[in-house]
């Protein structure tokens, strides 16, 4: 380790920035964020610093740098474009043991500035020791996306309860207690914006814990895994995927998505191939409740969005009946994912003012749908689970008055590297895909918007017919 990472208190203390340009302005801004009193020495000020001066946030000492400027500040940053000045500032500061940073010149620094992820009061600082600031910023970018913006609130809750916890929980149990709180349902309440409920739950947990340690109950995360491409997961989905103890998933969840669940989590496959449920729905509902009652954090991972043809509602109804805590995380539904990746906007000013999602799943070989409503002009209709019944679907649409020439598409394994898009009309689609060896899952999109595919398709795929 070439540097000692520390966090310095500069609130209400004088800090000096030498230089008036945009780089100096960025440094001044960080100092201000940490509450420093900033003086800028420079003959002139650039636009950002001028603005900060006009609004009274910084002091400006006009003129060239003079050694006298070092009487007073507790920290100095040199950000001029004059190498000699930067050098002089560095030497004078080091002679006085005054912490000094010269921008982009590690050799002249007695401290360096990290890239920061600010989840105040949580602060994460990343440094490459000055070797590759760009790399530090890339790392910061990755951490930014991994660490929810709400983590700061978790720290705020901990601060609020710190004394109470000290009073009620003996030191030997305190660490385990906090881990349980921050990683369990109470922490989840905070992260999903239910802070009042989290406070109340923590209060009652404290009372119970003080009497006798209680095992914390489990919970269920009903999470939408999106249509296949793992990049389409939400941040929250990813976080819960990485902390669950058990993963209950079905066939639609892509292997690329499944791979992002915690390595040592137990995985339970509950099937759901067409008409071939590995586990009946009622048993899935019971399974989730049973696992949660064993104190497990259960990830119920579903393809697409859990509330769109996902039976997510049924699964959490069982949980409510048993009083098991849960949360629902939306996912990108197949219609959105396939439409985006096939270059078929679901609505368009010229072609469609509404869009309908409908199930094409056959029951006893037939489909009872409100066909009149599905053949309206200026409307896009998306059929989920429609491959098997595609002939009936297309025939019924035409029978109820949809022009046979209406464009129609079948999007196969949308958003994955195996995506294929078959473009035809309602009349010709069933015939066209008959020998195309279509692999599930696939989605049918009917409407004038399908025409736009030719112009808007962007996603490289195996062999799309453009
Ligand atoms: N809850 C899911 C839908 C479940 S129903 C969602 O919101 O997407 C299952 C149907 O979704 C499949 O029969 C198929 O029509 C569609 N589907 C899901 N993923 C798909 C994909 N990657 N490409 C095409 N269709 C998909």
What would your notes on this structure say?
The chain has 466 residues and is α/β, with parallel strands linked by helices. The chain is 37% helix and 18% strand. The protein contains 17 helices and 17 strands. The strands form 4 sheets. The chain has a 5-stranded parallel sheet with strand order 3-2-1-4-5, with helices on both faces. A 5-stranded parallel sheet has the order 10-9-11-8-12, with helices on both faces. Helix 5 (151-168) packs antiparallel against helix 6 (171-183), helix 7 (185-191) runs antiparallel to helix 8 and helix 11 (281-293) crosses helix 12 (312-322). Bound molecules: S-adenosyl-L-homocysteine. S-adenosyl-L-homocysteine (SAH) is lined by residues 227-228, 252, 302-305, 308-310, 333-334, 338, 384-385, 411, 413-415, 441-443.
Helix content estimate: 25-40%
> For the residues shown, what is the average pLDDT?
92
Bound molecules: S-adenosyl-L-homocysteine
Low-confidence stretches: none
Strand content: 15-25%
Q: What's the oligomerization state?
A: single chain
Global Rg:
30 Å
Going across the biggest sheet, name each strand in turn: 3-2-1-4-5
Structural class: alpha/beta
Number of helices: 17
Would you report the number of β strands? 17
What's the story with the biggest beta sheet? 5 strands, parallel
Shape: globular
For the record, give the distance between the C-alpha atoms at the N and C termini, rounded to a whole number. Answer: 56 Å
Topology of helices and strands:
Layout: E1 14-18, H1 22-33, E2 37-42, H2 47-54, E3 58-62, E4 75-78, H3 83-95, E5 100-102, E6 115-119, E7 122-126, H4 133-146, H5 151-168, H6 171-183, H7 185-191, H8 195-211, E8 219-224, H9 235-243, E9 246-249, H10 255-258, E10 266-269, H11 281-293, E11 297-302, H12 312-322, E12 326-329, H13 334-342, E13 354-359, H14 371-374, E14 379-384, H15 390-399, E15 407-412, E16 420-425, H16 429-434, E17 442-446, H17 453-456
Parallel strand pairs: 1-2, 1-4, 2-3, 4-5, 8-11, 8-12, 9-10, 9-11, 13-14
Antiparallel strand pairs: 6-7, 14-17, 15-16, 15-17
The structure holds S-adenosyl-L-homocysteine.
């Amino acid at each position: 380790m070439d540097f000692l990472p520390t966090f310095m208190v500069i609130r209400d203390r004088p800090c000096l920035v030498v230089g008036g340009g945009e780089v100096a302005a960025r440094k001044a801004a960080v100092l201000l964020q940490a509450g420093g009193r900033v003086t800028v020495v420079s003959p002139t000020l650039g636009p950002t610093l001028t603005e900060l001066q006009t609004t009274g946030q910084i002091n400006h000492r006009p003129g060239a740098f003079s050694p006298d400027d070092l009487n007073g500040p507790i920290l100095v940053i040199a950000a001029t474009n004059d190498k000699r000045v930067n050098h002089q500032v560095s030497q004078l500061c080091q002679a006085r043991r005054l912490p000094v940073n010269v921008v982009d010149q590690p050799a002249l620094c007695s401290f360096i500035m990290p890239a920061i992820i600010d989840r105040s009061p949580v602060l994460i600082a990343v440094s490459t020791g000055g070797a590759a600031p760009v790399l530090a910023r890339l790392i910061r970018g990755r951490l930014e996306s991994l660490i929810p913006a709400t983590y700061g609130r978790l720290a705020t809750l901990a601060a609020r309860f710190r004394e109470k916890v000290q009073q009620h929980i003996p030191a030997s149990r305190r660490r385990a207690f906090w881990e349980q709180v921050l990683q369990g349902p109470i922490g989840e309440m905070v992260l999903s914006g239910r802070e009042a409920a989290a406070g109340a739950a923590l209060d009652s947990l404290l009372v119970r814990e003080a009497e006798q340690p209680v095992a914390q109950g489990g919970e269920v995360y009903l999470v939408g895994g999106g249509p296949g491409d793992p990049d389409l997961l939400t941040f929250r989905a990813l976080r819960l995927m990485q902390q669950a103890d058990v993963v209950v998933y079905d066939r639609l969840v892509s292997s690329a998505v499944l791979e992002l669940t915690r390595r040592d989590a137990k995985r339970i496959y509950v099937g759901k191939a067409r008409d071939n449920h590995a586990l009946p729905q009622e048993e899935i509902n019971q399974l989730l409740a049973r696992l949660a009652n064993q104190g497990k954090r259960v990830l119920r991972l579903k393809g697409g969005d859990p509330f769109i043809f996902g039976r997510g509602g049924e699964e959490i109804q069982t949980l409510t009946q048993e009083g098991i805590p849960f949360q629902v995380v939306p996912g990108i539904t197949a219609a959105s994912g396939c439409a985006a990746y096939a270059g078929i906007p679901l609505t368009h000013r010229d072609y469609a003012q509404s869009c309908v999602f409908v199930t094409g799943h056959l029951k006893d070989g037939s489909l009872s749908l409100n066909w009149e409503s599905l053949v309206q002009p200026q409307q896009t209709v998306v059929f989920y689970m429609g491959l098997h019944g595609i002939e009936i679907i297309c025939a019924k649409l035409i029978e109820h008055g949809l022009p046979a020439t209406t464009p129609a598409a079948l999007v196969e394994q949308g958003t994955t590297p195996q995506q294929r898009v078959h473009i035809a009309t309602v009349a010709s689609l069933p015939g066209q895909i008959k020998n195309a060896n279509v692999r599930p899952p696939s989605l049918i999109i009917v409407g004038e918007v399908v025409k736009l595919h030719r112009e808007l398709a962007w996603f490289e795929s195996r062999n799309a017919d453009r």
